[in-house]
Specification:
The structure is a single chain. By secondary structure, the protein is α/β, with parallel strands linked by helices. Strands 1, 2, 3, 4, 11, 12 and 13 form a 7-stranded mixed sheet that branches. It has a 4-stranded mixed sheet with strand order 6-9-5-10. Strands 7-8 form a two-stranded antiparallel ribbon. Keywords: Signal, Transport.
Amino acid sequence: MTAATVTACSSGGTAQQDDSQPLEVWIRQDAGSPSAESAEALTKAFTKESGIEAKLVAVGVTDFETKLQQRTAQKNLPDIVINDTGQLGNLVTQGLVREVDRDGVAGSADLADRAWEAAQGYDGKYYGVPFNSQAFALLVRKDWREAVGADVPKTWDELTELAVKFTEDDPDGNGKNDTAGMVIPGSTTRGYLTWWFSTMLWSEGGDFVKEQGKGYASAIDEPASVEAVEKLQAMFCDSKVAQPGASTADSSATHTFFESGKGGIYLTGPYMLPRFDGSLGKDKYEVIAPPPGAGGEAVLAEGENVYMMAGSHNEKGQQEYAEFAASPAGQKIGLGVDNGGIIVRLPVNTTVDGAAERKDPRWETFQEVYNTSGRNAPALPNWSTIRQMSSEGLNGVVSVCSRDAGKAMGELAGELDAELEKQGAKGE
């Protein structure tokens, strides 16, 4: 992306305004899916409430970024994009999104501070309005845990011990050595391994990067980080509690493995509950908060923002859409209670009780994890690049068991520092 293109995308500032212009709204969902239906319901409710015409476009999950870049090249961005918080830095760097005045957003005080934090760029300014949040919890085969006579794990070490029992003690009682204690998406695709490992790393007191001066520096080669990586490597190479093919598995593969009845512990999001209730059975597994490690409690928090794209001819409509999406009415539609199309996993609006709306206390566990232990990825100019590089470095350690974790993380630290320098975020 050239600077000239960025300028053209944003029209050098504010495009000529016309409050009657319809809005084009993009969401990262597959067309025809229940989630797309919820987004359509949200958009129609907005039009009914505001009188502003809006058209939803459900853009496929796998080619969302590609299609957005195509529209960027055409200098014809959609008005609204609902997309991951992890994409914020990339969108800001390209000049594709407008700055948001947090205090000027109606109902902003009702939105969780942690959710607002995920809408904040490296420069401290806001570039999105929170819409959806989530944290991760452990789905554990309750019937297996009871079969091997184990208690609910209270630490990461106890969790690993439980994973060993699930791997070695025939928890399903079929007389075969065909179960895996830990289900891990270890692929480098979209940085999956970093995504999964973040909770473990932070809980053990390590980190990918740390604040240093007015910027950041790599922290993946520090003692606590290396120790966490060594424990990760052991899951693949020593105790071998990770499922077969874990180093190349993405989330679609791990979802299938867990629901097939071959995996015992799966760190994932609340959006999987409806699927696993149907495929595995609600009585077969339990939801527990990730336990603390040597560094305490810390769980990856993520979500989605409503991004008001640059160059829109209806900025007033953009803001009204974002405000409606974050309002109690918009959040309740997004919960997908009626149709199962979950586009709001945990409400960002603190006046909405998602667990009560769903009448399912398991969602409260996820909410409590988010509230008490949730931690957003750092607000770097481009976190997604750091995530990808980290995933590739970690994958090299778990794929080649002879690799020295400390040496490998030292090499990765140098790569991350070079990338931070490139992004203008290297602290002194």
